[in-house]
Specification:
Elements (H helix, E strand, L loop, with lengths): L1 E5 L3 H12 L3 E6 L6 H4 L3 E2 L10 H21 L13 E4 L3 H15 L9 E3 L1 H7 L9 E4 L3 E2 L2 H14 L3 E4 L3 E5 L2 E5 L5 E2 L3 E4 L5 H5 L8 E12 L10 E4 L4 E4 L4 E5 L14 H14 L7 E13 L5 E4 L6 E5 L5 H16 L15
Parallel strand pairs: 1-2, 1-12, 2-8, 4-14, 12-19
Antiparallel strand pairs: 3-7, 4-6, 5-6, 9-10, 10-11, 13-16, 13-17, 15-16, 18-19
Length: 366
């Protein structure tokens, strides 16, 4: 069996990696659009503090976080260790006392039987600032030791390299699909046929453009995010935890004295690949409100990513009904970097008729 994957973001890269590990002939193509969510996303792995209600999305969110340890260990066997991954912990904070107490209750309930989350602590404002020095002086926090951060660019590239080492073909191209006798057929950018027994579309916010010629209404639209990168020259930030303000924008740090604040959630944005004054102001004002110590940081860049947001805010994972040989993975939204690697494993298992860790009927394409 040959599988063609269209879209090499975090979900497509994971699908390719897991299929290649099963010995499947895999080809993955990507158009390298500006604004790919994987290239802009911050990479927070901490589902337990989210305000998402318990249900199918939250279940997938938690499963995605639980899978990271196995993913990181598996990539080590291919020599892939530079993932920007660190289990640095997470600080949950809130300006409103009632909201803080609600978050504390929610986190305590959710981590009760989740060993990977670690033992949650209630930290004083002084203790919280020891972990994240720019934090406002009066903000106590809930500390979740099992929270992690990952560099999505590094992780996706590592999975693609591992897949390629197993024989997967990875290339840049803008392909198109058409229907022939009820099955999708793929054409390369130069018009030549791309042969495959199964086609998987993991093209994120651009998936609708690929699926429209098949007469399919794919309920995913781009949600624009603007995310700011700052640098604190000479400051060791590698062990700073992820900062999760309830009702505001997240902050996280990486190994190179870099701190990230994000991100806007701009619906009905289309593919407007521009940094806007309003977007930057929103993100900076929110970040400095909880971490005023970042006021003297250097602005490095503002990245733009288009999250694939489904209309019902649910992941879409499974075989497309009525179209033989077509599978879709999409709609992970802002949770893509937590869910994506695990969702790729699920799609690989689905395509090879392996037992599934999750009932995918709840996420099936309509």
């Amino acid at each position: 069996m040959k599988v063609l994957i269209i879209g090499a973001g975090i979900l497509g890269a994971s699908t390719a990696y897991h299929l290649a590990r099963k010995g499947i002939d895999v080809e993955i193509v990507d158009a390298q659009h500006e604004g790919k969510a994987t290239l802009a996303g911050a990479g927070i792995v901490c589902p337990w503090a989210t305000k998402l209600e318990d249900g199918p999305f939250y279940d997938m969110y938690v499963a995605g976080a639980a899978y990271y340890a196995a993913l990181v260990e598996g990539l080590k066997s291919f020599g892939e260790t530079d993932l920007g991954y660190g289990k640095v912990g997470g600080l949950v904070v809130a300006e409103d006392r009632q909201e803080f107490e609600a978050a504390a209750e929610r986190v305590a309930r959710r981590v009760a039987n989740v060993p990977e989350a670690g033992t949650v602590e209630h930290l004083s404002a002084a203790a919280a600032r020891e972990k994240f020095p720019p934090l406002r002086e009066d903000m106590e926090a809930i500390f979740i030791p099992g929270a992690a951060r990952v560099d999505a660019r590094l992780l996706a590239a590592a999975m693609l390299r591992a897949a390629a080492s197993l024989g997967a073909k990875v290339r840049q191209d803008r392909v198109s699909l058409a229907l022939k006798d009820g099955k999708p057929v793929c054409s390369a950018g130069d018009g030549t046929a791309v042969e495959a027994d199964e086609i998987v579309v993991t093209a994120g916010a651009w998936a609708s453009q690929i699926l429209d010629p098949l007469g399919l209404d794919h309920p995913v639209e781009p949600q624009k995010g603007q995310i700011i990168h700052l640098r604190l020259p000479g400051v060791q930030t590698s062990n700073w935890p992820v900062l999760l303000p309830m009702g505001s924008h997240y902050l996280l740090a990486f190994d190179d004295s870099r701190v990230v604040i994000g991100a806007t959630r701009e619906d009905n944005s289309g593919f407007d690949y521009r940094v806007t004054a309003g977007g930057e102001a929103e993100v900076l004002n929110a970040g400095l409100a909880v971490a005023p110590g970042l006021a003297t940081a250097t602005h490095i860049e503002t990245r733009i990513g288009f999250r694939p947001a489904s209309r019902n805010m649910m992941p879409i994972l499974g075989r497309m009904p009525g179209v033989s040989g077509l599978t879709v993975g999409n709609g992970l939204g802002a949770a893509g970097l937590t869910i994506g690697p695990f969702a790729g494993k699920l799609l690989a298992d689905l395509l090879t008729d392996a037992p599934l860790d999750v009932d995918l009927s709840r996420y099936a394409p309509a």
